[in-house]
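The following record pairs a protein chain with its ligand, nicotinamide-adenine-dinucleotide.
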Amino acid sequence: MAVVAQPKENPWEVALRQFHRAADNLPLKRGIREFLAYPHRELTVNFPVQMDDGSVRMFTGYRVHHSTVLGPTKGGIRYSLRVDLDEVRALAMLMSWKCALMHLPYGGAKGGVACDPGQLSRGELEHLTRRYATEISIIIAPDGDIPAPDVGTNDQIMAWIMDTYSMHRGHSVPAVVTGKPISIGGSAGRREATGRGVMIVAREAARIHGIPFAGSRVVVQGFGNVGSVAAYLMHDQGCRIVAVSDVSGGIYNPAGLDPRAALRHMQQTGRVAGLPGAESVSNDELLELPCDFLVPAAIEGQITQANAARIQAKIVVEGANGPTTPEADEILADRGILLVPDILANAGGVTVSYFEWVQDLQALFWSEDEINERLERIMVHAFNGVVELAREREVELRTAALIYAVKRVADALLIRGIYP
Ligand code: NAD
């Protein structure tokens, strides 16, 4: 049985350390810095779900709003056994910086339920989702806080949340969540948006690093929404996808894998392992394979002090949120490995979520080409801005991205003032 990579650090402590590193580079007044280090509001809900066998089980869920300074809050909902308040806090803070960096009119939020969605029947998943949606409906709203999918959730779960919220209101409110099916107000291009953004910044990183994108070797950890789409879109650009993995382990072929065949295999068998023509590797081994691009696209805390010295990639593109610890950041930087940070690399998802929300509010929908063109422009612009600031300040891309984002939120906060 393959070894499952486990996060090794508290994600909230990591998020705070990253924030303070950026804040050290900004002339922030002490109170402002402290304000931004706190989540604005945190909701914990314990709720019952009737299971298929008639029993009742209690579940715990969360919704955290980190910052409401730049607008309504935005952020995904995660279903995983590892969900706890510190993980949700960390992810909410990252969303504040991500939205600020991308110039989206949003603050940051995140939610989650501690559960293993793979162990629940469809009916149980629907009951859990509708009850959780009802519990958090006191703090979500199309003009207040707009959830989206994340690890363990998908467009069907967004549809149930949208329906539940709408039933309570007595009319349809499509703009209360993004990442919905297109038939009920979802956006063309949203499903692929995060992976597409990863592909775009990987291509731009190859350009500034002076390596040809076509023919480059790519390793992807996590073969869900982000990882699988990034893999096949990079494959379409001529990259060689040499290894991919899911929670139960990975597959490797130095000559290259067909990511769409891996996706079909996963849809049929529930895992990538066993794809003909590939050898198996553990998630830990996969991270250390020889490659040009390493795309961690699973969960937090995967590249750490323990393995950073053995990473062989030239460029790390963070599809996941928080996959690299601050200690590992330093080791990678010392070794000349370029890292494109999460708040930039995976921002394609929230950017097209923003497009979806705008389309829902206007009840006027755009074509997929229009969505992809706008996404391309915004991603390239953000990437170039971060690279320029990194050169100017002589810092790594993560610190530059955070400096830019934190400054935007801090400036807005100063203009709004401290109420009352
Ligand atoms: P997903 O549930 O669709 O896929 C997650 C993948 O990671 C699966 O293949 C799963 O098997 C694998 N995985 C889970 N735990 C693992 C572990 N311990 N070790 C190795 N692999 C593991 O989730 P997703 O939506 O693709 O999200 C992946 C990452 O990208 C998360 O960090 C998420 O916060 C981030 N992200 C997602 C979006 C989005 O639009 N979905 C946007 C921005 C960032």
